[in-house]
Fold this protein.
Amino acid sequence: MNPAAAALFDALGDPTRRAIVSRVSRGPVSVSALAKPLGISVTAVGQHLRVLERAGILNSIKQGRVRSCALRPEGLRAIELWAQTCRNQWAARLDRIDDVLETLPE
């Protein structure tokens, strides 16, 4: 697995971070608005956001006293490429199994 995909899986391995990504996928949201439904502090949300930003999933922008977060869909591309590679490998293996099964006598 490439390092970018590994970093994404690590970042998304936490249920709180997955909840944050799910919420941000509907549009930009402030850090305080993220913290409310999660039942955690704004500081804790900030720590999760830093992990997600380092993985390339989110951007955060500070305007005045409000920090907002937005999804970076292209940041999930590494997982998409990894999944496509796995899908291609599995399809090739299944094709080889089909070939072997066709050569067996009934």
User: Anything to note?
Assistant: Helices lie at 3-12, 15-24, 31-38, 42-54, 77-103. The chain has one domain: 3-103. Residues 93 and 99 are 10 Å apart (CA to CA). The radius of gyration is 20 Å.
